[in-house]
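Forum > Structural Biology > Help requests

Title: Can anyone predict the 3D structure of AMP-dependent synthetase/ligase domain-containing protein?

Hi all, first post here. I have the sequence for AMP-dependent synthetase/ligase domain-containing protein but no way to get a structure on my laptop. I'd be grateful if someone could post the structure tokens.
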Amino acid sequence: MQRYAAGFQKHGLEPGHRVCVHLDNSTENFAAMWACVFAGASVVLVNASLTEREVHYQLRDSECTHVLTDPACAEKVSKAVASQKMKGLFATGPAEGFVSVAAFRQLDEASFREVLIQDPHDCVLCIGYTSGTTGLPKGAVTTHYGFVASMVTARPCFARDKSDVVLVAAPMLHGSGFFFITVSVLLGATVVIASLGVTLQRVSDLVKKYKRLKDMIKCMDIQVIPAELEELILQEYSEHISEVVVFGLQHQEYGDAPAAAVVLKGCSRECDLECLAKKIKATVAVMSQKKENLKSLD
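Reply #1:
Sure, ran it for you. Structure tokens for AMP-dependent synthetase/ligase domain-containing protein below:
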């Protein structure tokens, strides 16, 4: 991202500028978009599915100074900005009239100049447009402070470490895709960005291909394999449980403590949950050899 940002800075992008980002989903495109922020600019999220007229309206309404798009959308963008005075046009690949940012990857990242955000409460990070249910779409502003606050608030709901793999099948220029991808990356997870228009079958294939690789749970001198515990619990309690996930929680005394999160079958939701939890602990104790180490999560 610093190399991309250095390239943008070399071409005059700076604080106060707004970049209309009109891109397909991809890892490189996501990095190029965030590099605009690294360079000090704000980004305006303009979905790649929009028409020329819609692109024109949003970049004019948000007072964009630059555009970042891909070669496939370059012609549409050229027409959309024809009546606008833009400071710069960038594309992720070769496109007539656009500066290709692909060459930025060859720059020395040491040439990047870090930009200090003077007032995070007031500095705009991004602008995303509503669907226009009541009248024309309206720009929703997110500041640097607001984005970080949202991330902190949502932290308990997201992937927790580098062993997690998050599949995002939403447009990265939609509020949900932009937020989920960014937060997951910042928390250390691996993110799989699905292309736009991904089918249900393709989603299923991606889930199988990039399934989460679970870490070994190291409880004192015992190594516990999550998959084995999951299989054991499902076999022994198939009458009550439909799904189970076993993972390790940090523990001062044991290093890792196995934890089980279970999904009860409908008919079992009225049973004695405390009794069921004790039975599961007793069963797992045979394998883990540390009955007190299994923490049960309802």
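The chain has three domains: 2-153, 158-213, 217-297. The chain is about 35% helix and 25% strand.
Shout if anything looks off.
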